[in-house]
Amino acid sequence: MRGQVGSDPGPSFNLARSWAHYGSNAGGPTVGAIVVWRHHVGKIVGQENGQWIVQSGNDGHAVRTRPRSVAGAIAFRWS
After folding, report:
1. 33 with 76: CB under 8 angstroms?
2. CATH assignment of 2-78, among 1.10.1760, 2.30.30, 3.40.50, 3.30.300
């Protein structure tokens, strides 16, 4: 995710939870928002059949874009 935002926020953002304090509050899931779980982070890039489409790295050892549940997310942030 560090490479997907305007300027690299630094190595402390290698920890997914750090993203819960990045940018500003998006107020909930929406296209373009960063979604943060306790151990994972991604960017919402779309919505399909009621599911959010999330692009994230280290998802099955690859960068993937796929439908993901945002249940358990701890933050939604604007970059």
Report:
1. yes
2. 2.30.30
